[in-house]
C-alpha cells in the first residue's frame, strides 16, 4: 500500500546562519576568543635548488676541469729513466730531488702525477746506486795492478818483464792472467792444468801486443802457434773453451835479448789433462 501524498514528514529545517564576524584590520589583534588566522610560508614552486646541492645542474663555462699533471713529476721520471739507461745512473740524484719536489707540490696544489713522482724517486734511487757502483768499480780497478793493466790494453801496453824460466812441455795448474805469465809453478801434465807451453817462437822484431791485429809480428805469432797445436793435437782448439795463447816480451826488452815468445794451449780453469806434445791431451768435457 503506497503512502498517500502529503503523509511524508516535512523536511528538517536548516540551522540558523552564523553571524558574520568582521575580520580584524591588518596589524590589529583579533578579539578575545576569536579564531586566530594562520599564515604559513608560501609553497615553493619551480625554484632552483640551492647552490652545491646534490643532483643540481653543474654551472660554469666548459663543465668540470681536470687538474693538470705536475711538470716536476714528468721531469723526475724522464730524468731517472734516461740517466739509468743512457748515462750510467749519473743523473739519479737529480731525478730523486725532482720527484720529492713534485710530491710536495702535488700535495699543495692538488695536481695529478703522484704515481709518476713516486716512480721517478724509486728509479732515481736505483740510478744513484748504479752510479755509486760504477765509481767504486773505477776506484777499485785503478788500485788493482792486474785489472789496471788489463784496462790499459786498448790504450798502451803496460810495463812488464816476461818470465824466461819456462820451457816447452811445462804445464801450469792455473792460467796466469797477466802479461808476464805470473809466478805459477809448473806441474805434471798428467794432473789437471790450465796451460801448457807448446813451443818457443823466435821473433824477427819487437812486438807491441796492444796494437793487434795491425802488428804483423803479433798475427804471425798466433798463426804459427795455432798451426803447431793443430799438428800435435788435431781438433783440440775451440774458440770458447780451449784457445791459442801467445805471450810476447815487452818491446823495450828486445834490445836486452828478449827475442822469443811462448806459444801455449790454454783454458780458463784447470780442465786439461795429458800433453799436446805426445797427443794425449784431453780438454774440458
Please, could you describe this protein's structure?
With 285 residues, this protein is an alpha+beta fold. Among the domains are: 71-143; 171-266, no CATH class. Helix content is 31%, strand content 8%. It has helices spanning 71-85, 92-109, 114-143, 145-151, 216-232; strands spanning 171-172, 186-187, 195-202, 243-247, 260-266. Strands 2-1-3-5-4 form a five-stranded antiparallel beta sheet, covered by helices on one side. Helix 1 runs antiparallel to helix 2, helix 1 runs parallel beside helix 3 and helix 2 runs antiparallel to helix 3. It is elongated. It starts with 70 loop residues before the first helix and ends in a 19-residue tail after the last strand.
Share of residues in strands? 5-15%
| Biggest sheet features | 5 strands, antiparallel
Shape: elongated
According to DSSP, the number of beta strands is 5
In angstroms, what is the radius of gyration?
A: 51 Å
Average pLDDT: 79
Helical amount: 25-40%
> What is the ordering of alpha helices and beta strands?
HHHHEEEHEE
State the secondary-structure class. alpha+beta
- Largest beta sheet: strand ordering: 2-1-3-5-4
Instruction: State the distance separating the first and last CA atoms.
Output: 140 Å
How many H/I helical runs?
Answer: 5
Low-confidence stretches: 52-59, 150-154
Amino acid at each position: 500500500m503506497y503512502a498517500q501524498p502529503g503523509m511524508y514528514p516535512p523536511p528538517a529545517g536548516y540551522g540558523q546562519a552564523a553571524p558574520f564576524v568582521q575580520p580584524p584590520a591588518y596589524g590589529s589583534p583579533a578579539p578575545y576568543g576569536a579564531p586566530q588566522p594562520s599564515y604559513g610560508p608560501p609553497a615553493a614552486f619551480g625554484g632552483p635548488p640551492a647552490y652545491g646541492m646534490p643532483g643540481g645542474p653543474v654551472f660554469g663555462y666548459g663543465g668540470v676541469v681536470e687538474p693538470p699533471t705536475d711538470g716536476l713529476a714528468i721531469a723526475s721520471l724522464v730524468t731517472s729513466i734516461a740517466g739509468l739507461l743512457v748515462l750510467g745512473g749519473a743523473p739519479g740524484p737529480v731525478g730523486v730531488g725532482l720527484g720529492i719536489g713534485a710530491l710536495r707540490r702535488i700535495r699543495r696544489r692538488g695536481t695529478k702525477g703522484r704515481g709518476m713522482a713516486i716512480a721517478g724517486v724509486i728509479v732515481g734511487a736505483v740510478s744513484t746506486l748504479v752510479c755509486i757502483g760504477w765509481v767504486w768499480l773505477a776506484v777499485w780497478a785503478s788500485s788493482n795492478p792486474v785489472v789496471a793493466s788489463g784496462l790499459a790494453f786498448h790504450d798502451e801496453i803496460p810495463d812488464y818483464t816476461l818470465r824466461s824460466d819456462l820451457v816447452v812441455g811445462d804445464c801450469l795448474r792455473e792460467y796466469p792472467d797477466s802479461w808476464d805469465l805470473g809466478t805459477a809453478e809448473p806441474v805434471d801434465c798428467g794432473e789437471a792444468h790450465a796451460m801448457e807451453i807448446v813451443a818457443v817462437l823466435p821473433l824477427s822484431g819487437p812486438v807491441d801486443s796492444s796494437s793487434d791485429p795491425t802488428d804483423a809480428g803479433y798475427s804471425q805469432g798466433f798463426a804459427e802457434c795455432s798451426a803447431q797445436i793443430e799438428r800435435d793435437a788435431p781438433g783440440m782448439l775451440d774458440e770458447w773453451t780451449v784457445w791459442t795463447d801467445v805471450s810476447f816480451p815487452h818491446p823495450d826488452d828486445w834490445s836486452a835479448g828478449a827475442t822469443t815468445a811462448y806459444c801455449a794451449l790454454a783454458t780458463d780453469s784447470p780442465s786439461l789433462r795429458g800433453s799436446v806434445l805426445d797427443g794425449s791431451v784431453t780438454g774440458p768435457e
